[in-house]
Amino acid sequence: MQKHFRPVAAAVSIAVLATSGCENMTAGENALIAAGLAGAATGIALGTTGVPVGTTLPVALGAAAGAGALGYGVSKMQVNRDQRMFAEQRGQAMVQQAYQRGATNIPRYILVDTIAEKPSGGRPVMVYDTASGRVASNRIYYVNVPPGPYGYVEAPPGMLGG
After folding, report:
1. Partners of 141 in the β-ladder
2. In sequence order, what are the residues at sequence separation of 6 or more whose Cβ sits closer than 8 angstroms to the Cβ of residue 99?
3. 27 vs 22, higher pLDDT
4. Same domain (yes/no): 85, 155
5. Which residues contact 138 (CB under 8 A, 6 or more apart)?
6. What is d(CA 26, CA 43) in angstroms, rounded to the nearest whole number?
7. Per-residue pLDDT averaged across 39-48, rounded?
């Protein structure tokens, strides 16, 4: 029974993560999942090779702590669901208002305001793709550029990597 439990538990964990995705989770939730998976993988790997529990436990806990800290740090750098949703709604409204005010040639990528968790100078913006109606990246930029005559500013090419 125990022999078959480990692969089944690993497969279920991977399937749950693959189907749920980590984009809509908080940084703490991402850190807990990373810590749990790293600790379990390390503990299982060491435990099945005959390493004593006195060694396995501290190494597994260390792996869990490291993975959790890394997962938290990476997640805090990413945009959360509310910031992304706010930017997309703002972008859609901005494009619609620009057309109503007479704009004829709206650029493909524009900067739209969003919510900043920790403001760090300038106004927080995201790059919005007017063709797809979605935010083009998972990154917040802080700019000191005033909005243009139609309420938007074209995104500089360097913001999207080219």
Report:
1. 125
2. 106
3. 27
4. yes
5. 78, 79, 84
6. 26
7. 82
Report yes or no: 136 and 160 within 8 Å, Cβ to Cβ: yes
- Mean pLDDT score of the chain: 78
Q: Does residue 27 surpass a pLDDT of 70?
A: no
User: Do 10 and 57 belong to one domain?
Assistant: yes
Q: Is there a single domain that holds both residue 87 and residue 156?
A: yes
Enter the tokens of residue 143.
């700019």
Q: Are residues 125 and 153 in the same domain?
A: yes
- Can you say whether residue 98 is alpha, beta or left, with left for phi > 0 and alpha for psi between -120 and 50 degrees? alpha
Interval 69-112: pLDDT, tens: 777 766 655 677 888 899 999 999 989 988 888 888 888 899 98
pTM: 0.54
Do 55 and 91 share a domain, yes or no? no
Q: What are phi and psi of 119, to 5 degrees?
A: -55, 140
pLDDT of residue 160: 65
Looking at the structure, tell me whether residues 127 and 92 fall in a common domain. Answer: yes
Which domain, by its residues, includes 149? 81-160
Same domain, 110 and 53: no
User: What are the phi and psi torsion angles at 49 (to 5°)?
Assistant: -95, 0
